[in-house]
Design goal:
502 residues, 41% strand, 5 helices, binds CU-O-CU linkage, mainly beta, binds copper (II) ion, 7-stranded mixed sheet
């Protein structure tokens, strides 16, 4: 873990921090809510019925509040982000409109934080799309800054990709067109302004975009209210419960679960599809259900060839994992917690029976063969701790420089090498726009079980080398970015341009 004080000291002593501090202060000056520091959070707790503990139940009576959270754990219901209805559906196209605007949101009850949002909520509204059917989303920029919106995991034209420098100004609107020419998958839309991305996303500019298709429907996986997207986001609160942002804060202690610390979620004793997204700026999350089995059915780019049983799951920023969790294994009244290494972050309360006709097939979507390998590349990730610049192959991002030229309908082997072993090591989470890849190996060892299937983001821990096979399909030529999805690293330069040619 990078030592924050050391980094700060370096930044100050070299003067390089001056480059970054204005970025970090832009929203840090946010108006603080009326003083609520003295508020008794336990007064907010609804009464949660005592559990009649069945088998395999965590005793959560002594679960401490997460560091940085002053309330009582498991007293607030988890919010499932609302699904947005199209304004209009015409000629096979669904039209949506979303306002990007500042909003006061109570992440901690009773204590509003000043956020930047899509439609006023910390996790923006969910768009549920169908493969092959076009979605147009008009975003109205009512923010104080320019912005751009990227649909993470998509395959669209460069304009519709919401590129980091292709922003639109406050007061302007922009319509992005997504033809959903890709299969079912859990995606997310988020801000991509360079170099404000880190604080924009941190303050709430993110939401789910879920694509469904006929094949997935035919599998009879859990759906509707039993299909639940959950975004996890590492955050820091001040003593009064107000969300605070600091560029150099690399130990954000509180994990928000759909925008709330340690909420509970009432579930029926049946199977659920849980779509997990690590929406953190920086933190790698290690998750478990207290040893209980989770069946992973999809990763970043959709369904796996076959379900993968897991008792633990590691998600770096922007990675997704769809899990089937079968709560019928628990007696009514059971509490099941989703835990991160630093403690429980979400409690599932099994409180009712429900009919369950869903299934988990043994075979799902086979991975199609990749086109022939046309190139191999070494991509070195590093940080200059004196200048606080982050590099890909020794260079910071330059919008006018093409870093990688890649030929359509070929594949490439990328060795992504993280050489940041100083200061205890800095991890990276590498993401490529527009293309997908599969993980071949990490330091020569097979990838982790949760890294199977097609992906778009991969963890590259300090000192390790991950090899991926990148598939460049389609007919879209043009320039797209790849970058570290630890957003402060991206802001500090760890981003490059890929140009696709026919
Ligand atoms: Cu989540 Cu450049 O993307
Ligand atoms: Cu992306
Ligand atoms: Cu990084």
């Amino acid at each position: 873990m990078l030592d924050r004080r050391k980094l700060l000291t370096l930044a100050v002593s070299t003067g390089a921090g001056a480059l970054l501090i204005p970025v970090g202060t832009k929203v840090a000056g946010a108006v603080r809510a009326p003083d609520m520091a003295g508020m008794d959070m336990s007064a907010m707790s609804g009464s949660v019925a005592p559990a009649h503990h069945g088998p395999m139940v965590m005793d959560d009576s002594a679960v401490p509040a997460q560091k940085g959270f002053t309330g009582t754990p498991f007293t607030m219901p988890m919010i499932v982000p609302a699904e947005l209805r199209p304004m209009r559906s015409l000629f096979g196209t669904d039209n949506y409109r979303i306002a990007m605007r500042p909003a006061k949101v109570e992440l901690v009850p009773g204590v509003p934080s000043d956020l930047l949002t899509y439609d006023g909520t910390f996790v923006g509204p969910t768009i549920r799309a169908r493969s092959g059917r076009t979605v147009r989303v008009t975003f109205d920029n009512q923010l104080p800054d320019a912005a751009t919106v990227h649909l993470h995991g998509s395959h669209v034209t460069p304009f519709n990709d919401g590129q980091p420098m292709n922003t639109f100004a406050p007061g302007e609107s922009r319509t992005y067109v997504y033809d959903n020419s890709w299969p079912a998958q859990t995606m997310w839309y988020h801000d991509h302004n360079h170099p404000l991305v880190a604080q924009h996303v941190y303050h709430g500019l993110h939401g789910f975009y879920i694509v469904e298709d006929d094949f997935e429907r035919s599998l009879h996986l859990p759906r509707d209210e039993y299909d639940v997207p959950i975004m996890l986001a590492e955050s820091t609160f001040d003593d009064s419960g107000v969300l605070t942002y600091d560029f150099f804060d690399f130990d954000r202690p509180t994990i928000l679960v759909n925008g709330r610390p340690q909420p509970f979620f009432r579930v029926a004793a049946r199977k659920y599809r849980i779509r997990l997204l690590n929406g953190s700026n920086h933190g790698v999350l290690t998750l478990d259900l207290g040893g209980a089995e989770m069946l992973q059915i999809a990763s970043d780019q959709g369904l796996l060839p076959a379900p993968v049983p897991l008792t633990k799951l590691v998600l770096s920023p922007a990675e997704r994992a769809d899990l089937i969790v079968d709560f019928s294994r628990y007696r009514l009244g059971s509490h099941v917690t989703l835990n991160e290494t630093r403690g429980p972050i979400l409690r599932f309360d099994v409180d009712r029976h429900a009919h369950d006709t869903s299934r988990v097939p043994r075979r799902m979507r086979p991975m199609e063969p990749a086109p022939p390998v046309a190139a191999t590349r070494e991509v070195v990730l590093s940080t200059n701790f004196d200048t606080i610049e982050s590099y890909i192959n020794g260079k910071v991002y330059d919008m006018d420089r093409i870093d990688f030229r890649m030929r359509l309908n070929t594949s490439e082997i990328w060795s992504i090498k993280n050489i940041d072993t100083d200061f205890g090591g800095v991890d990276h989470a590498f993401h490529l726009h527009h293309v997908k890849f599969r993980v071949l190996d990490r330091d020569g060892a097979p990838p982790q079980p949760w890294e199977s299937g097609w992906k778009d983001t991969v963890l590259c821990s300090a000192g390790s080398t991950v090899r991926v096979q990148v598939v460049i399909n389609g007919s879209e030529t043009g320039t797209y970015v790849c970058h570290c999805h630890m957003l402060e690293h991206e802001e500090a330069g760890m981003m490059a341009n890929m140009e696709f040619y026919a």
